[in-house]
Write a structure and sequence with these properties.
By secondary structure, the chain is mostly helical. The protein contains 15 helices and no strands. It is elongated.
Length: about 325
Amino acid sequence: MLIFILRRLGVMVLTMLALTFIVFFLTNLEPNLIKLALSDGNMRMTEEQTMQWLENRGYLRPFHERYFEWLGGVFTGDLGESTRFKQPVTELLAERLAATGKLMFFVMITMVPAALLIGVLAGMREGTRLDRGLSIVSIGSTATPEYVSGIIFTVLFASMFKAWGETYAWFPEWLHLNGSAASATGRSGITFYNFTLPVMTMAIYGMGYVARMTRASMAEVMTAQYIRTARLKGVAFRSIVIKHALRNALIAPFTVIMLQFPWLLTGVVIVEAMFNYKGFGLALVEAAENNDINLLMACSLASVAVVLITQLISDIGYVYLNPRIRVK
């Protein structure tokens, strides 16, 4: 196991180096640098002034020098300064990742138990009305993109809370919605609009996929020979499910659940921008809009690290859940 982990860590380092090199190359193409100079400097600068602006800030130095300089900053914790937010990228990224981590935590504790419960119930009663009903719910949630369900939730809850707020004087202030994410954020920090609705939007979208995988795995396990033997021995159905079927049925969903973390990082880009939640996704959007090279590089590095680490944890957990797997 130790050799396997060390090999995977080596592959992870090489993968991160390759991907950061590609991103650094693309973000430092001449059109992007000119756009950066015009947006951060003066839109009316001439071509000579633009080149002078870039030269004064070191953007015209040889590509390999600037890449290795940035790479050295990664090891020392100095990722440069954001041209958009005018603050160190390390501090900004840590703040935004913490905000997104909080959002992802509540998405997972909402999505995973609900998805596992739906999948197990459907798999236990394969072919019944319960199975068909839960399957329809799962497919419907997966088929609805985040930007669609987010708009639906905004319209429904905004209208409902507005009516309740006008009718009941005791209605909590933090639940009032006025249709503006920016105003909701500025009023009291985390609100129902910019936190609870994003959690609901992402949890419902991811819940269906995990539930379908759990249902398929559970249905397969319930037809296994050892389950039939337990039934013939007269073991109670609840005991069969909890003691015999559940652990084996959760092997495949565990891998899927771990792979939800990379998906959440891509999903928060849409959801955070929609609800104006000040997290990693919104920082990535703002960095791309303003051609903030240092912040873009930091975001890409964090994204690659999350994907590779979750895949490693998924492989290790799969081995422990399934004793038949041996790592060489």
